[in-house]
Specification:
The complex is a heterotrimer of chains A (263), B (187) and C (541). Chain A is mainly α and 263 residues long. Chain A is built from twelve helices and no strands. Chain C has one domain (5-536): Cytochrome c oxidase-like, subunit I domain (Cytochrome C Oxidase, Chain A), CATH 1.20.210. Classes of the chains: A mainly alpha (263), B alpha+beta (187), C mainly alpha (541).
Chain lengths: 263, 187, 541
């Protein structure tokens, strides 16, 4: 038997299969890259070439149609990267400890507050850093914090974040907290409330979300109410305002009390 | 139909049946493709016509996805542009307001991971991929309120990511648009 | 001659054991998100279970079945000892190690990213590395299939490669190329980030790579089932294969067009140009062709059996078929599910209709009906058919086998039909719970409850399957007759070179891939600023 050559114009299997494949690809390409794009509603291409480029997926950012509406209040300027501030150096923590001396009055000597101010010991560094920056830019309004952060540099805030993140948290005994209320464990799906722990650490943590367990109930309640009313709006993309707005007063109480007990 | 004979005659008959079947199969598939193509042409049901990018890290710092610019905007030509973002685990605005009988363009992006959304009872369905802007044209006929869930796994809070869309009468929408430049049904 | 017996048994036992472990997870997921169970207090467990179920059922189980069955076919079809037995054991070991490496972090809740990965979500690196090992292990199998076929061809110049081997090699090549997309995504995008070498990842590009794998992997799962349709079913019911040539063409078509169509999974994605979406939609239509050809060839082959058994008239041959034979029954039930699933698939491939169902429970229903239904039921049939040749003991619980196949079929219908329905109603996939008290969702509660019942029937069927196999270990040892595959009505004496090898088809496959994927990938790589921060999961407290 003579060896049959496959790649040969005399082999009908070769010519037909390549021909049919090419024909399908060409017809589909003409329809998909030229004809359909030119018929696209709400899209005026300058030329056939323009249509082909768009259909091929070249990046073409549209000119902004209407004017962009700017906020008449300061919004957060912090750019969050989930990996930021990980792996702080001992020097950074040391510098943070020195800077933290001015915070002890309210936040406690070891980051554990006796008043109704937040405990900072073991807090996620991104959360501390972001809030400090927001106090400084005015995105988060506080008559007490604003003057205290006014002279802090970016490096100072990173050091403070590193120091407080390094301090040990209040130890959790779990049992003391009792059963978590439904709003904490399950949220309320159709009010767009995810379980609190999905971002705040019990299930998973989302960069810039804070650790809540052991925080004073008064503080938590005040913040949730501020998010709900719009008095506080330094959350990026309204992520907390969306949640707090949907919560009932009873749910705000239940969540605040639960987290205050859970330490 | 088929023959058991292994003689050439029987086999030829079998091959003929086979070819006819293959031809019918090809014809059905061609018809399906043609139908899909014409549906695209006459109902304007096509994927977005251009690829656009947006940096999820800086959406809130500037550009069309800053929070004060989100929501529904009435354009000078009478159409409506709806801008919103998806993030772990909500849409902002979490309640979208649109008028009836008006061409609506959705412009949506993600601030963190992959999300998606669909609007119940419609064929509005988009993926949100961080880094890119998803867009889609739509038109709503009947007023009402519909659910708008995130339909792509976006980590552990995915089950809590449900937005809403409220479709209101065109005239009422215009009146509201005269007072505020960006509308939503967030209360 | 028969020296891969233990190898094949090891593959199939590990495959079915992993299947047995992952099956109840599916039912548990169905139950806890149904109205029958209160909302789960820690949703992460739900996603952890989905990840384990998907990873096992999509990557481990079918890959091992394809590998084990492939080794079986190699010796039985070529009628000579397999080359490379040691390498085959190495491949098996890689799959086992990979499976363990992947499942441990999943079980610990460190990689609840679902089997489709979803970057920029990033789990524990061991999960991804484990999956890469599974794939590498399967590539050893691909190489062995190819080597064995080419050695045989060299020793039998001009002779047609036996059809079962031809089809198996086609399936192995399909897998080799299909897996490349996910492998690129894992090796160059995800694993460097998971190991902390990089902090950003291009999620859009990752979705393009994954679509490369995601659609054609279904055809890889399908291959053992299709090989069984062609090479086991006609023989087992006393018929002939209607056409050897048509079978080869069907497998060749799968090889060429199954892969470069994956972007139809990304119709609603923003990062891909509309032209490529259309192109992929058209080629997706072509991939329906080999299935339609298969339906014809197998129906004709079965008709031959019916007529040989004395069936007369237009439909009389149907009554004459050996319905009590598990192979006949399994194949028929598989065809019914393939018919429903295929019809659903035609809807998914159309851009407009897809928009109504994209990412809803419809999709879950669709791929369960095709894969867990039509395909897995054929895995059972394959096991029932070849088990006696592996263990040297007969499987004689025919009543149990029939009950098992029927319960699998009924369970799958009861599970997936309601899923399709709630998908049309707009129910999104993969949520740990739903608020059935809302009037907009309340109508879905009944359908979801039905799916729970379907899942329970499937678990029972799975138990029956293991009972059949275990009972088969207690029967008397017999030397089974020589294993035979179906013989064609007209076995080919010679074949055109194009139908006796893969050179041309591999060339077309690669060329079509470059046309359909080359530009989207290249463009995505060349576009600066599309990489986004990775979001690591599984770090509590």
């Amino acid at each position: 038997m003579t060896r049959e050559r496959i790649v040969s114009l005399r082999n009908p299997w070769f010519t037909r299969s390549v021909g049919i494949t090419a024909a399908i690809a060409i017809v589909a390409a003409v329809v998909g890259f030229v004809w359909l794009p030119l018929q696209h509603p709400g899209e005026r291409f300058k030329s056939v070439w323009d249509a082909i480029c768009s259909a091929a997926g070249l990046v073409r950012n549209a000119a902004p149609g209407t004017q962009i509406v700017r906020a008449d209040y300061p919004t957060t300027r912090v750019e969050i990267d989930p990996q930021m501030l990980s792996g702080a150096s001992a020097e950074s923590i040391g510098r943070g400890a020195t800077l933290a001396l001015r915070c002890t009055m309210c936040h406690g000597a070891r980051g554990l507050s006796q008043a109704d101010t937040p405990n900072l010991a073991g807090q996620y560094p991104v959360a501390i850093y972001k809030e400090l920056l927001d106090f400084k830019t005015g995105a988060r309004v506080s008559a007490i914090m604003a003057p205290l952060v006014a002279d802090l540099s970016d490096a100072d805030m990173r050091d403070l974040a590193a120091y407080y993140a390094y301090l040990p948290r209040v130890t959790s005994s779990g049992a003391a907290a009792g059963e978590a209320p439904p709003i904490v464990t399950s949220g309320a799906p159709l009010r767009s409330i995810a379980p609190c722990g999905a971002c705040h650490g019990e299930v998973d943590s989302k960069a810039s979300a804070a650790w809540l367990e052991g925080q004073p109930a008064v503080y938590l309640r005040t913040q949730l109410e501020a998010f709900a009313s719009g008095a506080r709006r330094n959350d990026i993309g309204e992520q907390m305002r969306n949640v707090a707005r949907g919560m009932t007063a009873a749910e705000i109480d239940a969540a605040s009390e639960f987290y205050a007990r859970a330490q | 139909m088929t023959h058991l004979s292994t003689s050439d005659e029987g086999a030829d008959h079998g091959e003929q049946t086979e070819r006819r079947w293959a031809a019918v199969a090809v014809a059905i598939l061609v018809l399906l493709v043609v139908m899909a193509t014409f549906a695209a042409l006459y109902h304007g049901a096509m994927p977005q016509s251009r690829v656009e990018t947006a940096d999820p890290r800086t959406l809130h710092l500037g550009g069309e996805f800053i929070e004060s610019n989100l929501g529904s905007a009435l354009e000078p030509d009478g159409t409506v542009t709806v801008r919103f973002i998806g993030q772990q685990y909500s849409f902002t605005p979490s309640c979208i307001l649109v008028p009836t009988d008006t061409p609506v363009t959705f412009r949506v992006t993600s601030a963190d991971v992959v999300h998606g959304f669909l609007i119940d009872g419609t064929n509005i369905n988009l993926m949100l991929v961080p880094g890119y802007i998803s867009s889609l044209g739509a038109r709503f006929e009947t007023p009402g309120e519909r659910l708008m869930p995130c339909h792509e796994f976006c980590s552990v809070g995915h089950e809590g990511m449900w937005g809403r869309i409220k479709i209101i009468d065109k005239a009422a929408f215009s009146r509201m648009a005269a007072e505020r430049r960006r509308l939503s049904c967030v209360e | 001659m028969w020296n891969s017996r233990r190898l094949v048994l090891a593959h199939l036992w590990f495959a079915f054991a992993s299947f047995g472990a992952a099956l109840p997870l599916g039912e548990w997921q169905m139950f806890i998100r149904s109205p029958l169970h209160p909302w789960i207090s820690d949703p992460e467990w739900y996603y952890r279970s989905v990840t384990a179920h998907g990873t096992t059922m999509a990557y481990v189980f079918p890959t091992l079945v394809a590998m084990g069955f492939g080794y079986f076919v190699t010796e039985q079809a070529l009628r000579r000892p397999m080359v490379g037995l040691r390498w085959a054991w190495l491949g098996f070991a890689l799959v086992v190690v990979g499976t363990i490496a992947a499942i441990v972090p999943v079980a610990l809740g460190r990689a609840s990213v679902l089997y489709t990965f979803y970057p920029p979500l990033i789990g524990h690196p061991s999960y991804y590395i484990g999956i890469v090992l599974v794939v590498v292990g399967s590539w050893v199998w691909v190489a062995l299939m190819s080597i064995n076929m080419y050695r045989w061809k060299r020793d039998n110049p001009g002779a047609p490669v036996p059809f079962p081997m031809f089809a198996t090699v086609a399936g192995s090549y399909l897998w080799a190329w299909t897996a490349v997309g996910a492998a690129l995504e894992l090796l160059f995008q995800i694993i460097p980030v998971a190991l902390g070498l990089r902090d950003t990842i291009d999620a859009g590009l990752a979705r393009v790579f994954f679509s490369w794998t995601l659609h054609a992997i279904v055809y890889f799962w399908l291959m053992p089932a299709y090989i069984a349709y062609y090479t086991i079913v006609p023989r087992a019911i006393g018929g002939r294969l209607f056409s050897d040539t048509m079978g080869r063409i069907a497998f060749i078509l799968f090889l060429v067009v199954a892969m470069p169509i994956g972007i139809h999974h990304a119709f609603e994605d923003p990062q891909i140009g509309s032209g490529f979406k259309y192109l992929h939609s058209v080629v997706t239509a072509v991939v329906a062709l080999p299935t339609v050809l298969t339906v014809f060839t197998i129906c004709a082959s079965v008709e031959i059996a019916g007529r040989l058994r004395g069936g007369k008239g237009v439909l009389g041959w149907l009554a004459a078929l050996p319905w009590r034979n598990p192979v006949m029954l399994g194949a028929a039930l598989s065809f019914v599910m393939l018919g429903f699933g295929g019809a659903g698939g035609l809807i998914n491939m159309s851009y407009q209709l897809n928009a109504t169902v994209h990412n809803t429970q419809w999709i879950t229903g669709h791929f369960h009906l095709i894969f867990a239904g039509a395909i897995v039921i054929m895995y059972f049939v394959i096991a029932y058919d070849i088990w006696p040749h592996l263990t040297g003991r007969t499987l004689d619980s025919f009543g149990l086998m029939r009950a098992q196949l029927w319960t699998w079929f009924i369970g799958m219908i009861v599970l997936t039909f309601p899923w399709h329905w709630v998908g049309i109603l707009g129910m999104p996939r993969r949520m740990a719970f739903y608020d059935y008290t809302d009037p907009a969702i309340a109508p879905q509660a009944l359908s979801v409850t039905m799916s729970v019942i379907g899942g329970a029937i499937l678990v029972i069927s799975g138990v029956l399957f293991f009972i059949v196999l275990v009972r088969g270990q207690t029967t008397l040892r017999t030397e089974p007759a020589v294993y035979r595959f179906s013989v064609a009505v007209r076995p080919p004496r010679t074949l055109p070179a194009a139908l006796n090898g893969f050179g041309l088809w591999l060339g077309l496959m690669v060329a079509l891939t470059i046309v359909n994927y080359g530009f989207p990938i290249a463009h995505s790589l060349a576009t600066p600023g599309t990489a986004v921060p990775a979001v690591k999961v599984g770090e509590r407290w």
